């Protein structure tokens, strides 16, 4: 059985049949169909014949193992069931992508049929980054590597930054590779050169490429040096494997962006906070790319993007989104007017400037909880005096507010404490997580 047509049925290994309702699309490995199975609609990925080059049994067994183990997080469109083998061909079913999600590629370019997709807000960008990073952190913590991270793996909701990760059939336990190397332009240098099979470390390089493109759209390694008139396999190996050069490397300007193609990078590189740019500079430094220094791990990315998420506020002058990176004077990225931030809250690992709209997350207080969703508090302006700020308790826990005179007051959920220097706020059950207003 090769390609399927509407009305065909395919036997599932553990009982029942999936009936083909429509075709979603086709790619290099197979074709995806809309099917009905046990009264519910799913997506069926049906592989092309001979796509596994003799490793069909290994691939089939790996898929079965992944189905039994289950998805690391809800962000994965994980295989849910596998078909029987039909004349050497098989497939698996997964949930159908819901409406409102767009492939990451659509955020990079537009077409006659589809306008370029844009995020509703910088807050949505931050949430998309956090969701992607945390998904791969959980995947790696579960003993898997993805091995083929690329622009076609992600569906993102531009309104809220929610993410769904597809093509999870290539996911394998550490130390196992079924012949999948990855997609050119996203593969780590050691995979391009053949020095290593894909693994957790190569995933981390590919993740850095995805995050860079999420923010800046341009590719981090594609500049005037690495975009010759005629690309050959030898040149690809050099530019993506042997001698990759970051387009914004502060110590090497050989591969700066090509004028005319760098509009997005020229627009956004000056805008984003320096601490974000610094981590990208490290991730794409020669030593890190060539594995002479450690790759940036997921927790480091999460620390940076949670700091960024807390910095996104509305400018009081032009009402557009901007960033506040520090206590004191900040400049709006839109109207260029000054925004003064009198105070910040100092946790054990991060200091967050306090300005209306800032969200305090559990991650800021205690990242060891591995909680990327819980909002602890929000900075609000006093309705009677907009220049006076407070912290609203968004949690379900009564906080303890320690005053400079040594006294302590409770703060019930939904209540607000004034932002005053030297107040120390215990917003979790662990006093070590307390934040001090400075």
Automatic annotation (TrEMBL):
One of its GO terms (molecular function) is ATP binding. Residues 18-306 form the Protein kinase domain. Pfam families: Pkinase. Keywords: DNA-binding, Kinase, Transferase. InterPro entries: Kinase-like_dom_sf, Prot_kinase_dom. PANTHER family: OVARIAN-SPECIFIC SERINE/THREONINE-PROTEIN KINASE LOK-RELATED, SERINE_THREONINE-PROTEIN KINASE CHK2. This is Uncharacterized protein with protein kinase and helix-hairpin-helix DNA-binding domains.
